[in-house]
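Supplementary notes for students who missed Thursday's class. We covered one full example, reproduced here. Read the sequence, then the structure, then the short commentary at the end.
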Amino acid sequence: MHGSAGRGLRFHILFAAAAFLGAAVLRFALDG
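Structure (token representation):
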């Protein structure tokens, strides 16, 4: 588990970025 710490962190950042982007797109779409 100690060796995959870097990969886990990178995945967490990628997931957060994707969620933020998705929320922004959804908000923009709902705004019309």
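Commentary. The helical segments are 5-31. The chain has a mean pLDDT of 88. If anything here is unclear, bring it to office hours.
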